[in-house]
Amino acid sequence: GLMWLQHGGSLRHTSEQNDGVSRYGWLMHDGENFGVQEIRDEGLVLRTEFVKQPGGDHGGDWSWRVTAKMEGQGPAPLLSLFFYVATDGQGTLQPVLENGTRLAAVAGTAEELGDFTLTFLPPTGEGGEGPKYASYNFLAAGVPGLHRLTDLVRHSLRQSSVFSPPGRPRRRYFGVSSTGGLPGEPPRGQVLLHQVTLEPPAALEVTLE
Questions:
Q1: What residues have CB less than 8 Å from 19, skipping those under 6 apart?
Q2: Residue 173 contacts by C-beta under 8 Å, 6 or more apart in sequence?
Q3: Which of 11, 10, 54, 8 has the alpha carbon at shortest distance from 30?
Q4: Signal peptide location in the record (predicted)?
Q5: 116, 108 Cβ separation under 8 angstroms
Q6: CA dist list (Å): 98 to 93, 103, 118, 134
Q7: Any idea which of 73-82, 93-102, 143-152 has the lowest mean pLDDT?
Q8: Domain at 2-208: CATH architecture
Q9: pTM of the model as a whole
């Protein structure tokens, strides 16, 4: 799944008609192999595209691209995208960390999927050209149920992370702390979350093999 946060705004997880997200919906979708979705949220345009390649015993592989850009003039606010994978009572997830801070991949196993690898590629410019500067945070936690994911992430955010692109002013932002949970609620499953903080426009890709 995906959550997002424009720093200075509120954490978004689901698009509800009454929470200020002005427009969202599928632009194209064949119900099975590909889809293109657009979400507009206070000047931010998020486009998500997926394509699936059938095969094997567990449904095949897929890749997912998220493109973020701003409409209008003025400096872009910092944007955090939170990509997560969660289990609910079955399956196991193992983090694959790069430099101790970037969740590069998740190695998992589940009854329905068998063994799988979910890989988070580094962000690029909007058209896929060149690497894009980003700051990274990750969260590994037990979760009492999928309905509590938003609360879990909100509970783990701390305004102690620093976005410091070369030659540019440093800015503080809300980043997830690496471990956590909801106090007093026993975990049913686990969640691994990859937070990418950057200045739009940018594109990010996720693959599942």
A1: 12
A2: 7, 78, 80, 135, 159, 161, 162, 163, 197
A3: 54
A4: none
A5: yes
A6: 16, 6, 14, 14
A7: 73-82
A8: Distorted Sandwich (2.70)
A9: 0.92
